Structure formats: C-alpha cells, structure tokens
C-alpha cells in the first residue's frame, strides 16, 4: 500500500510497538495512532515520512526518549500531537537544530518536559499549543504570544511556572489555562480572564456580577473567595456553567441564582454554606448537574430536584441533610445520585433505582430492609454501607445485571448470601454500552472556538482548526471502594474498570455459596466480619481477576484449598480469626502472604507462619468433616475428667455410710492392710 495517504487507527485497543513497516509508507500525509495502548519506544524512522502533514500519537503508553529533532526535515508537517500515560516517557527537544516545518497545532501533554521546547522559538503560525501536565518551570513564556499572533488556545496548566507576565501589545488569544502552577506575583489588572487556581480572595464585585452580561461559562474554582453566593440577581442570565467550588463562600444559597434559567451546571461544593437547599432550584429546568457537597446544608432534600427532566448528576454528599429520600427520579437519562455522609433516615424506596446509574447512600441513618428494587436495568453502582439496614439480602439484587460495585458493608444484615450473583455482570462481564456520563461526565453544550479547514491536493478529512471544548469537563464523580485493606478513589471513567462486592461487617451466616467462585470479573471480594461457617469453596479458584480476597473474622473451618494458588492476580489475602486447620498452601502469590493473613487459626501450619507441620498435632485432615471430628477440645476434656472423679468419690463415700456386708468387708480389708504394714515396718 505504498500509495496510502491517510491512515486512521485511533481510538482502538491496539497493543505492542509501532510497526516499523509504517515508517516505510512514505506517501502518508496523515498518521493517527492516538488513544490506543501502544508501548515501547517510538522509532526515529518516523522522520522518513517526508509527506506527513498530520501526526497524532496522543494517549498511548510509550516509554523511553523521543527527540523532536527526528522530525526536523518534515517540511509539510502542520499538526503534531504526542503524549503518553507512562511516567517513563520523555520528549527531548534541546539542540540548535532548526525545523523545516511551520506548525499550526502542537500538543505535547504529559511528556515530562522541564523546559518549553526550543523548536517553538521558530514557530510563527501556531493556533493551538498544549504543554499541560509537564514539569516546566521558570517564567511564563509570553514570547509565544508575541511570535504567534494567530494563537487562540494556550494550555499550560499543571506545570511549575513561577511568574506571570503578558505581552505589552494586545492579542487575540481566546482560551488560556495556566491553572495549577506556582505563580507568586499578582496578575495584570487587565487580564480579562478568570484563572481558576491562582487564589483570588475577597468578595465578587457588584460591577462584575452585573457587568458580564454575555458570559456563558464562569469558573471561580479553587480560590479564596468569600461572602454569599449571589444574594442578589446577576446580569449574566444566559450563563451555562457556574463553578464556585473550593472557596470560602458562606451563608445561604443566594436568590440571585434563581433567574439563571439557562444554567446547566451549578457547582458550589466545598464551601461553608449553611441553611437548606431551596426548593426553587427545581425551577432551573435546564440543569444537568448540581454539586453542593461538603458544606453544612441541613433540612430535607427538596422533592422538586427530582422533577428536573435533564438532571444527570446530583451530589449532596457530606452535609447534614435529614429526613426521607424522595421516591424516584424523573430524569430522562440515567442519573448519578450521591447522598452519602448525611443524616438521612427512613427506608429506601423500592422505586429509587428507576433511571439511576449510580446510587451512593453510604454512612446515613437509613433503616429497614434492603428493598426489592424495581427497574434496575441501568444501575451499575449501588453503595449502602454504614447504615442500620436489617433483614436478609434480597435475591432481587441479582436483577442488577449491569452491577459493577455493590457495597452493603457495615449494616446489620443477616441470613445467608444469595447464590444468584452468577446472573450478574460480576460473572460474565458486559461490553460497556454506557457513555461516560453514566460514570460522572455530564453531556451538554459545546463552545465552538473556531473552525478552519486545511486544504490539501485532494479532499481530506483533516480539519486542523476544528477545536471544541466541552463546557462541563470537570463533573466526573469520585467513588471510594475498599480494596486491599484501604479505600481507593476511582474517578469518572475509571469506574468502568472496577468490579467489587463488599458484604463485610454484617451478621450473615451459613456457608459461602460455591457459585461466588464463578464471579470471573470480580477484583475485590470482602466477606469479613460475619458469622459465615463451613469450608472455603474450592470454586474460588475461578476468581481469576480477584486482587483482594478477605474472609477474616468468620467461623470458617477445614483447610485452605490449594487451588487458590491459581489466583495469579491476588495481592491481598486474609483468612485470619477463623477455625481453619491444616497446611497453608504455597506457590505463586501465596509465597508473598505473611503471618497477618492467617492470625487466629491455631491449627494452621506452614512456612508462611513459621510453624512446622511435622508433629501429629498439625496433620492435615483429608476433609473438613474429619478435621472437625479429630480436633480435641482440651478444656472440655479436663472438665469431664474432674466431673468423673468427683462422681466416683461421691459414690464410694455414699456406699460406706450404710451398714451393709460391703461396708463391713471394706473395713476388714483396711484392717488387714494396716496390720501387714505394721508387721513389715517393725
């Protein structure tokens, strides 16, 4: 295919290294390998593609060093995108070489850069530049604006820039992000842009609230702004997004928000707000996301919130809200409801999962049974930990066919574990048909910054200047789930990657169902601190993806199945404080588990706990039943022996207290014994 001019392989699941044969396709004008899982070093022979105009290698797992100088002779190159998820990847751009290309778009995020690349000194036509998520230090490179009068988008966030200076002349820059740097100086008074992480303080000026009448997106996040949240009406009634999170705002949620009828995202989380959630928020019918977490809001959840048709994300966590939970959500999509760490009480409505993808009710005061939920086809995350729920685990939970995270820990649930979870995605997995919004992203409008087509000799699919920015990119939720004896946080789309089941800290009893061993997708299984008995199922060897398995603080008996050594992904294993016996298996992952995994099982032996299995006391039973029969309770044995001795003594004394031939014969024998003893001694 020597005549091939455009090759698009982006957004697949390709692995391995970049094939060298691709660098022989010298007619290529477009090569897009972005958003794959490619690894290894990039070949210098990419510089042989002399006709290349568009090269995108973003979002892979490349390693080692890459020199931009390898591309120095690509005179036709206009778009260059490169970045890696691997921390061991680094772009090298030092040297005195002068490129033959004039680029329009340069994206080098996450390339471990420590300086602005030298080749950019020679670029005059840049329209978009992304150097975010690197380690670049020093002064803000204002010369980039001076040299590139067409520059419209500049991303420098998450670096180590120390000082900020703008050029003296006016510039047409449309989007500038320098958040998360080390700036220490004051910003120029005429900057005209709100920069989210530079720690502005004080109250919002009235002139700002009333003067920015045409604003669509306002992000004031991560500053030290104080005062009330729009206590009076604002003039920017056409606003789509208002983010005021991580500041020092106090007081009640202001009435000024009420006339922002086009608002789609409202984020006032992580402040010091008090009072109740006003019911008039339900009048904002275009609202997609409402984030009010980590404040001191009280009172009940207004039922009007659940009647907003387009509402996808409601985060009210970490407040002091009380009362009952509204019965259902009328959202047209699949909502994410985060109500954890409040004082909510009452029972959980059985219709609550209708149109709900994520439900987090952890650490409240909910009571009653877990309901037999209806309409559960969209739910993939259900978290009920830390309440006062009672009764058994309903079999209807096995109707959660798309479930990925189920946390019922730290309640008062009893009965046995249902043996029907093999009907869920825990067992067979599921090709993910849910979009990112079901994991925390919220879809919405798009700001179209500019659109410009780069012409080639033929009709090309390349659109160099087509750049859009989602105006609600920061709404991904964070879910904490206990794995490996710690809580890990999973953000947004990463939730797609985790399957976990936690039933710990309850009063569950009976045997562990063997079909749990068929939950092939599980990465974390926690059944600890219950009253489970019987044997550890040998079928657990089927948990091929499990990384954390905790069965501690139960009443399990018998041996640890040797088949568990087949669990190659197992990193944390605990069976401590049970009644297990026999030899601890060895091999593979089991060679890494120490004494902490087996505490409180005195009849176990093996290398892991430095206890020899040679003695008869530690002979491994053939099966759990024989082990239970052969174990002698020494305390009971001694009590039985003492009781028998006392009973015999009482019986002898009783027989001697009556005048009978036996009594006279006994004393005759005593007299004979005493007489013979005296004759021998004297």
Can you give keywords for this protein?
6 helices, 682 residues, ten-stranded parallel β-sheet, 46 strands, receptor, mainly beta, 26% strand
Question: Summary?
Answer:
This protein is mostly beta strands.
Explained architecture:
- This protein has 682 residues and is mainly β.
- It is built from six helices and 46 strands.
- The strands form nine sheets. The protein has a 13-stranded parallel β-sheet, with no helix packed on it. Strands 1, 2, 3, 4, 5, 7, 9, 10, 12 and 14 form a ten-stranded parallel β-sheet that branches.
- 38% of the residues are buried.
Arithmetic mean of pLDDT: 82
Main sheet? Answer: 13 strands, parallel
| Annotation field: number of helices | 6
**What global shape is seen?**
extended
- Fraction of residues in helix: under 10%
Radius of gyration: 35 Å
Spatial strand arrangement across the major sheet: 16-18-20-22-24-26-28-30-32-38-40-42-44
Stretches where pLDDT falls below 50 for ≥5 residues?
A: 192-198, 431-474, 619-632
Protein name: Leucine-rich repeat-containing N-terminal plant-type domain-containing protein
Transmembrane segments: 637-658
Organism: Brassica campestris
Keywords: Cell membrane, Glycoprotein, Leucine-rich repeat, Membrane, Receptor, Repeat, Transmembrane, Transmembrane helix
How is the secondary structure organized here?
Blueprint: E1 6-8, E2 15-16, E3 30-32, E4 37-40, E5 54-62, E6 64-67, E7 79-84, E8 89-92, E9 105-107, E10 128-130, E11 137-139, H1 143-147, E12 153-155, E13 160-163, E14 175-177, E15 201-202, H2 206-211, E16 217-219, E17 224-229, E18 241-243, E19 248-253, E20 265-267, E21 272-273, E22 289-291, E23 298-299, E24 313-315, E25 320-323, E26 335-338, E27 343-346, E28 356-360, E29 365-369, E30 381-383, E31 388-390, E32 405-407, E33 414-415, H3 425-428, E34 446-450, E35 467-470, E36 478-483, E37 486-491, E38 500-502, E39 507-511, E40 524-526, E41 531-534, E42 548-550, E43 555-558, E44 572-574, E45 579-583, E46 603-605, H4 624-630, H5 634-656, H6 661-681
Parallel strand pairs: 1-3, 2-4, 3-5, 4-5, 5-7, 6-8, 7-9, 9-10, 10-12, 11-13, 12-14, 15-17, 16-18, 17-19, 18-20, 19-21, 20-22, 22-24, 23-25, 24-26, 25-27, 26-28, 27-29, 28-30, 29-31, 30-32, 32-38, 33-39, 38-40, 39-41, 40-42, 41-43, 42-44, 43-45, 45-46
Antiparallel strand pairs: 34-35, 36-37
């Amino acid at each position: 295919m020597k005549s091939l001019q455009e090759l698009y392989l982006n957004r697949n699941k390709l692995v391995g290294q970049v094939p060298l044969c691709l660098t022989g396709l010298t007619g290529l004008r477009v090569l897009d390998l972005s958003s794959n899982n490619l690894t290894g070093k990039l070949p210098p022979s990419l510089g042989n593609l002399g006709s290349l105009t568009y090269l995108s290698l973003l979002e892979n797992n490349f390693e080692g060093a890459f020199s931009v100088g390898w591309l120095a002779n690509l005179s036709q190159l206009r778009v260059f995108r490169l970045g890696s998820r691997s921390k061991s990847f680094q772009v090298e751009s030092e040297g005195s070489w002068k490129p033959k290309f004039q680029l329009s778009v340069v994206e080098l995020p996450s390339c471990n850069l420590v300086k602005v690349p030298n080749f950019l000194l020679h670029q005059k036509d840049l329209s978009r530049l992304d150097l975010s998520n690197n380690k670049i230090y020093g002064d803000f490179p204002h010369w980039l604006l001076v040299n590139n009068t067409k520059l419209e988008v500049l991303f420098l966030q998450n670096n180590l820039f120390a000082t900020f200076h703008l050029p003296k002349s006016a510039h047409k820059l449309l989007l500038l992000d320098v958040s998360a740097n080390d700036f220490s100086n004051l910003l120029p008074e005429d900057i005209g842009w709100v920069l989210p992480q530079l720690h502005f303080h004080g109250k919002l000026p009235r002139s700002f609230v009333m003067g920015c009448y045409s604003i669509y997106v306002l992000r004031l996040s991560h500053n030290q702004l104080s005062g009330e949240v729009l206590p009076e009406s604002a003039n920017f009634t056409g606003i789509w997004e208002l983010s005021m999170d991580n500041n020092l705002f106090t007081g009640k949620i202001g009435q000024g928000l009420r006339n922002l009828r086009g608002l789609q995202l409202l984020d006032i989380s992580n402040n010091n707000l008090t009072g109740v959630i006003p019911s008039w928020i339900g009048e904002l019918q275009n609202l997609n996301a409402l984030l009010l977490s980590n404040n001191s809001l009280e009172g009940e959840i207004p039922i009007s919130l659940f009647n907003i048709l387009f509402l996808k994300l409601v985060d009210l966590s970490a407040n002091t809200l009380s009362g009952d939970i509204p019965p259902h959500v009328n959202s047209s999509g699949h909502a994410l409801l985060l109500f954890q760490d409040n004082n909510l009480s009452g029972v959980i409505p059985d219709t609550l999962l209708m149109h709900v993808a994520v439900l987090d009710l952890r650490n409240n005061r909910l009571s009653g049974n877990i309901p037999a939920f209806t309409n559960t086809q969209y739910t993939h995350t259900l978290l009920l930990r830390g309440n006062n729920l009672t009764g058994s685990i309903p079999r209807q939970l096995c109707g959660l066919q798309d479930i990925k995270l189920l946390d019922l820990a730290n309640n008062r649930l009893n009965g046995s574990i249902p043996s029907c979870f093999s009907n869920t995605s825990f067992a067979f997995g599921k090709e993910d048909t849910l979009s990112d919004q079901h994991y925390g992203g919220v879809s919405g409008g798009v700001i179209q910054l500019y659109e410009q087509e780069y012409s080639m000799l033929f009709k090309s699919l390349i659109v160099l200047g087509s750049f859009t920015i989602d105006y609600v990119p920061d709404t991904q939720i964070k879910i904490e789930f206990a794995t490996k004896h710690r809580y890990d946080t999973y953000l947004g789309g990463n939730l797609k990657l985790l399957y976990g089941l936690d039933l710990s800290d309850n009063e569950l009893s009976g045997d562990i169902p063997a079909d749990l061993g068929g939950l092939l997708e599980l990465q974390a299984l926690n059944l600890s601190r219950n009253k489970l008995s019987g044997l550890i199922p040998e079928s657990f060897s089927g948990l091929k993806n499990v990384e954390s398995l905790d069965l501690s603080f139960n009443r399990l008996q018998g041996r640890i199945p040797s088949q568990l050594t087949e669990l190659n992904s197992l990193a944390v294993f605990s069976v401590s404080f049970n009644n297990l016996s026999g030899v601890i298996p060895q091999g593979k992952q089991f060679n890494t588990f120490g004494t902490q995994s087996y505490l409180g099982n005195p009849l176990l032996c093996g290398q892991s706990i430095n206890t020899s299995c040679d003695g008869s006391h530690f002979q491994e039973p053939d099966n759990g039943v024989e082990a239970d029969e052969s174990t002698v309770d020494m305390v009971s044995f001694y009590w039985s022996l003492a009781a028998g001795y006392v009973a015999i003594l009482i019986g002898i004394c009783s027989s001697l207290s009556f005048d009978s031939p036996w009594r006279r014969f006994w004393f005759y024998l005593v007299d004979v014994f005493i007489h013979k003893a005296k004759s021998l001694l004297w």
